[in-house]
Amino acid sequence: MHFIWWIIWLVILIWLFFLPYRFPFRKNSKNRALDILNERFAKGEITKEEYEERRRILES
Fold first, then answer.
1. Which residues contact 38 (CB under 8 A, 6 or more apart)?
2. What is the pLDDT of residue 21?
3. d(CA 24, CA 4)
4. Is 18 domain-assigned?
5. What share of the chain is helix, strand, coil (3-state, %, to 5)?
6. pLDDT tens series, the chain, 60 aa
7. Can you give the residue range of the structural domain that contains 57?
8. Nearest-angstrom CA–CA distance, 60 and 42
9. 2/51 Cα distance (integer angstroms)
10. In the chain, how many domains are there?
11. Measured between alpha carbons, how far is 12 from 54 in angstroms, rounded to an integer?
12. Are 51 and 37 in contact (CB under 8 A)?
């Protein structure tokens, strides 16, 4: 009986560890792309014109 409890705890721990990777609680990919675009603009990697053009494309 003690062995079964160890197996149950092991399964629970493995399940809790892999849960975020199997079911990510993220925004949808469209919002994620906008987040990346905002980060790139904030870092100065793209110009204002490039930012506005890409944002318009993503939002359409």
1. none
2. 61
3. 30
4. no
5. 80, 0, 20
6. 788 989 999 998 888 877 666 555 555 666 888 889 999 999 999 999 999 999 999 888
7. 25-60
8. 22
9. 60
10. 1
11. 43
12. yes
